[in-house]
Hints:
Helix content is about 30%, strand content about 25%. The chain is of the alpha/beta class.
Amino acid sequence: MERRKSLPLQASESAFKGISEPLIAASELHKSFPPRKAVLKGVDLTLYAGEVVGLLGLNGAGKTTLIKLLTGLLEPDAGSVTLLGRARDRQGVRRHVALMKEGQPTLFEFMTPRQNLRYYGGLLGVRDLAAGVARVLAEVELTEVADTPLLYLSNGTKRRVGLALAYLKGARVLLLDEPSAGLDIRSTALMKGALKAFAAAGNAVLLTGHEMGFLESVCDRVVVLHGGRVAAEGTLRALLQRFAPEQWVEVWLEGRPGAGELLEEQGGLFRVRLPLAELGALGALRVRQLRLETPALEALLREVGDVARRVA
Length: 312
Ligand SMILES: Nc1ncnc2c1ncn2[C@@H]1O[C@H](COP(=O)(O)OP(=O)(O)OP(=O)(O)O)[C@@H](O)[C@H]1O
């Protein structure tokens, strides 16, 4: 087994570490899918009570694999996971962990939110079920649609049924894959509020995502997976400032520019690339078209990867 190399890329420690209870902790997790190379090569990750953590990484970095290892859907080749201070077992996961793949759990479309919750609550042996269901529906602002079949509800609303289920079973750890994907502004705000409230109640949330605005507003910190390890960790703002401080733009100009990198010339129009902050250097030249380059999040993930490769 390969020993973990320490990558000096940590931007900041969790504000919750030391003052808050560790709810789920992965230690030195290794996972391979032979014959391919190892996907995870010694991942450490602890989620503390009260925090929302973003799990980031380029496609194929191993985010889903890590979530599966945390929940026992997959077993690690080496390493361990503890849940509420004990070795994770099936019963502990069933009681304390809620998982929402592709933003929502498996729900019955022809049943209403209330019926779905009563069904699952019954399976989980929740006591005083009717009152519990009414309470959690109110908690995620679903009372109005509690008796409308899911079939007629938006994706955002269905995802909040998933959150209501996490509340109902008294889960301490919520793992979500892309909870904000495809949501409109109101649903995004409701989702954000619900996740923050869930964490503030002394629980922990781990989520994946690609939308910078959502991640920045909801995550207390993010961890970046690269090369099978946690290559960077900290607040998204701190990581962006460190790894991707500049937003680059491409502009088409009516005239030869004196600044930026000239990429193309066509019929008297010039395409140049330069940092957004240096747009002023183009002077009085008229801008025909302007395009923001690779989103900063993608730039951040690539740069973390480059730095990790250099120090490895
Ligand atoms: N059951 C499996 N069998 C073989 N290979 C697998 C299996 N599950 C995942 N992989 C491989 O492991 C790597 C990591 O996959 P994983 O889905 O964990 O990445 P990810 O970070 O979640 O990616 P994405 O952002 O695309 O969802 C990929 O190369 C994937 O093809």
